[in-house]
Design brief:
The protein is an alpha+beta fold and 315 residues long. The protein has 2 domains: 19-122, 3-layer Sandwich (Rieske Iron-sulfur Protein), CATH 2.102.10; 139-307, Naphthalene 1,2-dioxygenase Alpha Subunit, Chain A, domain 1 (Alpha-Beta Complex). It contains 5 helices and 19 strands. It has helices spanning 3-11, 156-159, 166-171, 253-278, 293-304, and strands at 15-16, 19-24, 34-38, 41-47, 53-57, 71-73, 76-78, 85-86, 92-94, 112-115, 118-122, 142-153, 185-186, 190-197, 200-207, 211-218, 221-233, 236-246, 307-308. The strands form 5 sheets. It has a 7-stranded antiparallel sheet, with helices on one face. A hairpin with a 2-residue loop joins β6 and β7.
């Protein structure tokens, strides 16, 4: 089957089985419930008594009330409508009328992780791979910050293609030192590449279907970035980015803050140049040239990536 028709057909089957960001970690607390539109449905988020992030379907199995209107009462999620209560695993644990709890009185609980200042939910029963990472570093080695960029229009996986579109680094972003790698390494759930010249380093990693982390060395400075998004539906995505600089114990806090601010300014310039194009792009694969060989491999990877229907929707 051609890549174009495979992608169009798979878009009708739901969303990728990938880790998607649903919020900034600093937005979650133990005393309130947050609702977010996500993957064509809606989810709720809160912290359990141990402080662990919880992401669950927003629809009460009783009559379908939006659980984001509810409250956390005695460490349980209480529906605003009839006060059914649910635990952090999604099971109904109490009905005020005293009726027997039906076997189907459950809400779907997404596999959840916290990394890089973001709360991630996996679209599936069991994660197929680990949450996204940034090449050549760990969280404790960086001073970093995560930001919500806004809502981006267009199909999220098509927009991720610019992670391996090395031509646009020179044409759109005017980064003449950027060059295409000879090869990219493609696995079942990721793509990785490395370009290393005397004046430029780019080590990039696509994780799953929606996250791109990179280590970029420019003007002698090592910079770390992560670009990702949580699809609201097939045409709108909550966009996030993370920027980080190496932690230097002997450096004054204000000097570190200046380095981080400089990187944030650089990244926001790149995003500001990308977004007018990506938000209006009507992507149709098929008209590619030889210089697009890495893009062609990316589209094949996305066409073959596993998908799931909206696992959090009520049956």
């Amino acid at each position: 089957m051609p890549v174009t028709s495979a992608m169009e057909q798979s878009d009708q089957l739901g969303f990728h089985q990938s880790w998607f960001p649903v919020s900034l970690t600093r937005e979650l607390s133990r005393d309130r419930v947050i609702g977010v539109d996500f993957l064509g449905t809606r989810v709720i988020m809160y912290r359990d008594p141990k402080g662990k992030a919880v992401v669950q379907s927003a629809w009460c199995p009783h009559l379908g009330a939006d659980l984001s209107l509810g409250q956390l009462v005695e460490d349980r999620l209480r529906c605003a409508y009839h006060h059914w209560r649910f635990d952090a695993e999604g099971a109904c644990v109490a009905i005020p009328t005293g009726d027997k709890i039906p076997p189907g009185a459950r809400i779907f609980t997404y596999p959840t992780a916290e990394a890089w200042g973001l709360v991630w939910a996996f679209n599936g029963q069991v994660p197929l791979f680990d949450p996204p990472t940034i090449p050549d570093t760990e969280e404790h080695e960086l001073v970093f910050e995560a930001h919500w960029r806004g809502i981006r229009r267009g199909v999220h996986w098509a927009q991720l293609s610019n992670s391996v579109d090395f031509q646009h680094l020179r044409t759109l972003h005017n980064l003449p030192a950027a060059v295409a790698p000879e090869t990219i390494d493609v696995s079942d759930y990721g793509i990785e590449f490395r370009v290393d010249t005397p004046s430029f380093l780019q080590h990039g990693r696509v994780t799953g279907a929606n996250a791109f982390g990179q280590h970029l060395r420019r003007v002698g400075e090592d910079n770390y970035m992560l670009f990702t998004g949580g699809p609201i539906d097939h045409d709108h995505t909550n966009s996030y980015y993370v920027v980080g600089v190496s932690r230097q114990p002997d450096e004054a806090a204000d000097a570190t803050a200046r380095r981080l601010a400089g990187l944030r300014e650089f990244v926001e310039r790149l995003l500001g140049e990308d977004e007018p194009v990506l938000n209006t792009m009507r992507f149709r694969p098929g008209v590619l040239v030889g210089a697009d060989r890495h893009l062609a491999r990316f589209f094949k990877y996305m066409a073959e990536f596993p998908r799931a229907e909206m696992v959090g929707d009520p049956a």
